[in-house]
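During the reporting period the student researcher (J.K.) took over the structure-prediction task from the postdoctoral fellow and processed the backlog of single-chain submissions. One of the processed entries is reproduced below for the supervisory committee.
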Amino acid sequence: MENGHRLTKDANEFSFWGDADDDDDDDAQNAPHGAIQTIAPSPLEANLIWVGSTTGLIHLTRDGSTWSDVTPANVPEHPYVNCIEASPHDANTAYAAVFASHGTFSTLYAPRDDHPYFYRTRDAGKTWEKIVTGLPEAGMARTIREDPGRKGLLFAGTTNAVYVSFDAGDHWQPLQLNLPTANVTDLAIHGADLVASTFGRGIWILDDISALRQWSAKLGDSAAQFFSPESAIRVRWDNYPDTPLQTETPASRNPADGAVLQYFQKSSAKSELALDIYDPQGNLVRHYSSHGVQETIAPPNVPEFWFYPPDALPNQAGINRFVWDLRYAHPTALPYGYFGSRLKYTEYTVPDHAIPGETPRVQPPGPLAAPGTYDLVFTREGKSYKQKLQVLPDPRIRISAEDYAAQMALSRKICAFMEDTARAFQAVVALHEEFDARKKALPAGSPKELGDAIADLDKQFHALEDGNTEAPGFGILNRDFGHDLVMVQSADMKPAESAYNTVSSGCNSIAKNIAAWNKLNAETIPSFNKLLKEQKVEEMKAAPVAPAPPPCSK
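J.K. obtained the following C-alpha cells:
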C-alpha cells in the first residue's frame, strides 16, 4: 500500500500497524513517506475498509488483502486525508475530509491553501465529487460524518466551525449555534446527540438532533411543525447531598433533564402557544403555555439566581425547543420548616442538585412519570399538532409495571392530600384573620364570657392550622405529606408497607381536623357571633364549608 506503513491484521480483525518490507526497492525508498491517518471500516460490509494517508492517498480493500488506490483526482497540492467516513447506509458511498498541508520544511512559511476540501464517492472510489457548496472559502476540512439515523444527513467540521447538509453534501449551511469559533478536530453521533471535539475549546455536545433528522425544505414552507420526539429515559437525580457549585465556578451545563420536545414555526405565533401532555390512560399530566407565570410563594432563604425562570414555551421563528421534566405538576407546599413550624419565607435546606439558574423553585416536585406512551398535543393559533412520546425505564432498574403503578398511585394520593391540606389551611387562615379583625373592633372592658370565647377560638384556630406532634393541623400535615412524597419518590420501587401506614395515618388526621372544622362552623362561630352582636360588633361571616373527609384506605 503506502511506503513506510501498512495496515495488517490478526486472525480476527484488522488492528495492527506493521513496517514496510525491508527489501523495498530504491524507487520505493525514494518515494514520499507518510502514515495512515484515518481508517474507516464499513458498517455494512465486513471486509470493506477505507484508509487515508498523510500524503493524500486513499486506498480501499474488500477482502482485507488486496488494496486499490482510489485517490480523488482533484485533491489540492500537498494533500492530507484527515478523515474518511464510510456511509452507514450504502457500502459504496464514502466521504473524505482533505486539507492542504505545508508539505516540506521549505514550504513551512509559504502561503497556505486553507480552502475546505470535502469529497464524496458513490461508486466505491471509482469517481469522487467535490462537495463544498455553501462553505466559506476559508476553513480547512477536518472531519465529516453521516448520520446513522438519516441517509444523506451530513455534519462537517473545519478549522473554525461546524456545518450541516441535508442532501449528502450537495449544499451546506452553518450549524454553529452557541459553539465558539474553534478548530473542530472530530465529530461523532451518539444516539441522537452530535458530539464535537475541538482543539483547545473542550468537547461540546448538541443534544438531540431529531429535528434535523426530520427536517426538509417542504417543512420550511409550512406555518408550523411538531417533531416526533426521541424516547426519554426515566432517570432520577442521585441522592448524594453534594455541595452545589457557585456561580463563579467554571462548569458546563447539564444535558436536558427530561424529554426534549421540538417544534418549528415559520414566524412567531401571534396568540398563546399551548402544550398538553396526557398519560397512557388519557389523564392530563401537564399543561404548558408560552405565557410563563411566576408562582406566588413566600420569599426564599437563598439568592434568586439559583432558580430557573417560569416554564414557558418559546415563541421564536425557526426551531424551538422545550424540555418536559417527566414529572406531574408539583403539589402545593406550605412554608413550613423541615422540622419546625410555620415560616414567613420558603426554606431550602438540602444542598444537592442546586444549579445556578436551573434549580426548581417549588419543592417537592411532582411524581416522576411512569414508563409508557404519552400523548403530546401542541396547539398553535387554533391548530393542534399531535405526537407520541415513549418514556423508557432506567435500564439499570428491574421492577414490574405493577410496581411502577403502585408507586404512582400512592404518590398521586399524597399530592391530592397536599392539595386538600393546603386549601383547608388557607381557608382556616382567612377565617382566623377575620376573627383577629373582630377582636380589634371590640370595645374595652368586654365581659369575661367574651374573653373566654376569644381564647377558645384562638385555641381551635391554632389546632386546625398547626396543631402539635400528636394532633397535627392542616399546615403540619401538608409539611409531613411533602416528606412522604420525597420518600416514596426517592427510588424506583414499590412503596414499602411503612409508607402506606404513614400516609394512612396522615389521612386519618385530615379527617379529624375536618370534624373539628365542622364543629367550629356549627357551634363555635354561631356562639361567638351572638357575643359580638351584644357588643354591637359586626358578626363574622359564615365559615367556608369543610371539604368531605378523604378515603383513607390503602
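The committee noted the following: The helical segments are 26-30, 210-214, 217-220, 401-441, 448-465, 474-488, 497-534.
J.K. will present the remaining backlog at the next meeting.
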